[in-house]
Amino acid sequence: MTMLYEGKAKQIFSTDNPNEIIIHYKDDATAGNGAKKGTIVNKGVINNKITAIIYNYLESKGVKTHLIEVLNDRDQLCRKVEIVPLEVICRNMVAGSASVRYKIEEGTTLNSPIYEICWKRDDLGDPLINDYHAIAFNLATEDELKKIYKMTDEINRHLSEMWHKLGIILVDFKIEFGRTSDGEIVLADEISPDTCRLWDEKSHEKLDKDRFRRDLGNIEDAYIEILRRLKEL
Ligand code: TMP
Predict the structure, then answer these.
(1) Which pLDDT value is given to residue 171?
(2) pTM of the predicted model, to two decimals?
(3) CB 103: neighbour CB atoms within 10 A?
(4) Residue in 34, 78, 18, 26 with CA at minimum distance from that of residue 52
């Protein structure tokens, strides 16, 4: 196996099949575009499981994903895709950078979800852009953007309902999409407490990576709690 790419939380390996890759989940954690670095014990094992449960759930609802199968504790076999260089963010409540940017208190509810796109450019800190930038910079076509927003809306509806059944508020999340060899847009990357804000419905306790970003402690316990609740599905 050849390593094709190493990101902050995952490594990507080639397989004998040119249309398939292996994603290896690491314990490394970063925040603030790499400014803060650390490890969360067993995060890779937990996020591999969490992503698989969520992607299988979404597949059962008709959302196409890159996941083929979980191979072991840290590895997933996935369809090889060309990643659309956008971070697609969906917000159901104000939190994080939206709270800072608009000076609105965290936890404020919204009339409707907000969808944002950021250009995946580590050297620029993944700047917020709009559809015109995405098309002008050749990051995605107009048709691809339409498909991406439609899928994001479906994913948000399915996951908000799923988390609500488990007593959790889906405050916001980030997803990424890929193009398969036949040009289909599928959900790629991961969905885990690294990439979502998840608050307990009753206590509003944060059960996600904000515990690492903001030095709140009990990080591992939060990730384990999220996996425990997902197993109730
Ligand atoms: P933000 O409030 O920092 O913009 O983050 C919004 C959501 O996107 C939050 O759930 C965390 C997630 N996210 C990532 O997964 N990766 C990133 O690089 C960023 C900036 C946010």
Answers:
(1) 98
(2) 0.98
(3) 7
(4) 78
